[in-house]
Amino acid sequence: MGEDTESMELPNLEPSRYLPVAKRWWWMGSLWLGLGILNATQTVVGMRSEGMQHAWGRLFFMLVLSWLIWLPATPLIQWLGSRFPPIHWRPISTWLIHLAACTGIGLAYSLWTAWLREVLHPWGDSVKHASVLAVGIDVFCYEYHLFLILYAAILTIYYYLDSRKRLALRETEAARLNEELSKAQLNALRHQLEPHFLFNTLNAIAGLVRESRNGDAVNMIVGLSDLLRRVLEGSARQEVALGEEMELLEKYLAIQKMRFADRLQVAVDIPGELLVVQVPSLILQPMVENAIQHGIGRRVEGGVIRITASRVDGRLTLIIYNNGPSLPEGWQQTNAGIGIANVRTRLRGLYGTSCVLDIRNHEIGGVEVLLSFPGRTCSP
Hints:
The chain has 380 residues and is α+β, with helices and mostly antiparallel strands. The chain has helices spanning 2-7, 21-49, 56-67, 70-83, 92-120, 132-210, 214-233, 242-260, 284-294, 331-335, 338-351; strands at 239-241, 264-269, 278-280, 303-312, 315-322, 356-361, 367-374.
């Protein structure tokens, strides 16, 4: 009965999650057959221990079969429980429906038991029996309280398992909706970041044109086209391999080198085994762009951007350093920038409290950005 109760197809639930019909009936039949065998064994053993003489085989068989009337009654009780849940005292009609159902099942059980006694003669062939109807009425009156207990037990177990199933489905649905919401939020942030990068690059192209560096401007446009194509190809993925992220960053740096020429130097120190670690897509570009705009771009002689990666205890740490001017006090309130804000929000959306984004002045001068989050390895 327990497995079947959990597997009944109910309104607003997913039928595919439940047991097939044949298996449900198998479980119910096994349960009631087991209860019948247990009851018959106790009854026969108890009567024999008291020295009674009966047709023990037929008595045992009759007692087992009498329980099987509850097999078709179980899904009926469950259906009534789902249709008329007696969870409130009102309306009274709900209670009357269940009382009538219990009474009907009890009458069926009583008449079924009386008929089995008439056919099998479990007390011996010499014992005279009353009519089936009279015996059925006696059984009904004597065992009606047991019918109420069994009916209430089936309903209680049904509601308990049903509530657990509904709770599990709600939790699964809530988790799915939260995941979809998180993806939607991350996509919105990502799409907000991409135009931000695009506008800055177009401004750089406009600057080259004003400086009459038309060849560099054309090359930058070609590089931008290639970069945007790569960005769009990976726009459906929230995470990519670090190696793929570095390839994208190199295309961006190639565009910036056309703008800054020898004023921009880049040093990369990333071990080869870390190139397969997953990182948020388009996570390095805004940090490097920020370093160029607020660091290298403010120095006449230019400067160096250094990118390093390491992994300790399963956490990946990325550091982007530039030797430009140090950050002034209170820069977070006055000049945090959209890129940094979006990166911080994306990291929290993907990793929760397991991520770190720290932007600080370096002790030897310049500014250092530290990104740290769980480093999951993907297939190369």
